[in-house]
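Q: What structure does this chain adopt?
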Amino acid sequence: MLQNIGFPGLMLILVVVLVLFGPSKLPELGRAVGRTLHEFKSSARELVSEGKETADHIEKDDKLLDKAKA
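A:
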């Protein structure tokens, strides 16, 4: 979806944002977007690591069950 915007569309979006928020609010807005992206990325990393840990625990449990059955 975003790859279809193109350069003219991106410029139009930037002009609209500049008009809506003004030049004094743009740095503040940029920081807020940056913090949001940082939090999103760290949460995604945390979920992936938890998923890997869960998969490792399940794999260990399966191995123990196989040994118990044998």
